[in-house]
Amino acid sequence: MPLVNMKDMLAHAHADGYAVAAFDLVGLDFLEAIMSAAEKTRAPVILSLAESHFDYFDFELAMAATVAAAKRASVPVAIHLDHGHTLQSAVRGIRFGCTGVMVDASAHPFEENVRLTKEVVDMAHGCGVPVEGELGYVPGVEGEDAERHPGEIAYTTPEEAERFVAATGVDFLAVSIGTVHGRMKGEPKLDFERLAAINERLNMPLVIHGGTGLSGEQFRRLIENGVTKINYYTALSDAAAAAIAANVNKGAKGYTAQVAGVREAIAAECARCIELWGSAGKAQEVLAAARPWREVEHVIIYNAQGISEEEADAMAAEGRRVLAAIPGVRYVMSGKAVQEDARYRRCWLARFVQPEVIDSFRDHPDHVRFADQRFRPVAGGRISIDYLLDE
Fold this sequence. Notes:
44% helix
């Protein structure tokens, strides 16, 4: 199971002087193409799902496929929520299987950005999940012409970057040095002196959004100055669109005929970027250096005492609803023994995203309230065990 800790993955890239590709996906064609390119080039990869794209697919269903693809990979994979805007977005992303989250409060004033980002950091770190913050403003929208979404670039300053990281505790920082989301006319002018100053102050993995349209030399200088994660989508979208247009121009009829070759076109662009950014061939090194992503099964077996079966069922239903909403919990299930003479007649199963959730779940006020007021008074002779899972 090559799902690995994203913080460890990017720490390796930072120390070794290359960048990991964070490719945004919007469907199975993208997912399969990205994984095909990563496997072919033997590279670590980040599967990224942007909140701005959620109008185009069901996030929960897309995450199920993304997690499945990551688990069957032979190269190291992380799954990232891109441009999440709220605490609840991050909680939801972690619940569905994201192993890293981004909180993008960059449109807010500095102090509000700090407050909103730290709120996510505190929650996510309690789940063992690393966080990317953004300081400065990168205009545009993923997959669209930058000119359609005008806005002034707000450049990241080294002084504010240092204050921001110290105040929030983010693990990675997305900086604004002249790139834009989407397509832009001409070659962007990047402020490498600014980036070098930020890198010197922070000495941590830096992130660039808006990679489409940059030259090989620009990418080289970005990586040279501390960039270890590059977000990339628009060029993949354009490659897919070009393949579809070519099929239509040749007279292709029907969906399957018109999308023929889309995966291959996306995969070719992904592989080009992976080679260019220096992550090709790094898979085994990252697998050796990065902690595997291992979930925990929290198991409780018990007997309900002093209440009716109907009351016990109602308590279990309430627990499933309340406890599943706690950050870091993938799901909560309750059940009854099949055998009538079983020593323990009832159970709880709760899946935690990481071992850190054992403590944060135990101390969460919703768990404390439910356990003390509803569960423990009627759960006689209970046994509780946490299992670190192998997959």
